[in-house]
Amino acid sequence: MKKLFGILVMIIMAGLLLTACTQTITEDMNGQTVNLKVGETVTIKLSGNPTTGYSWQLGDVDVTMLKQAGDPGYRPDTLLTGSGGTYTYKFTALTAGTTTLNFDYLRTWENKPPYKTFTITIEVQ
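^ that's the sequence the OP posted. Answer follows.
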């Protein structure tokens, strides 16, 4: 019984440690600054609807500071055709410094300004 309890405590501690190493940013944080430590991951969640032709486009990334963790993902809010959802981007902090991530929500084939933008400043310590 003690062995099982010890294993359970270790699993819980590992889960807490992993949770503490990831921050989630949402659109209501537009224009804010987020602090990370080297090795931590940040997840950015932006709402959108690809059935309208709009998508989020990421601007230039300082690859010496942040490494994009895989391709961006999209998950619809419902299974209904035409429903919106959430785009997810993940980045891992590589080195100390400050950088800005800029996203534009637009139709790539139109020659118009973005419908909306999202900017977040990342400070890595």
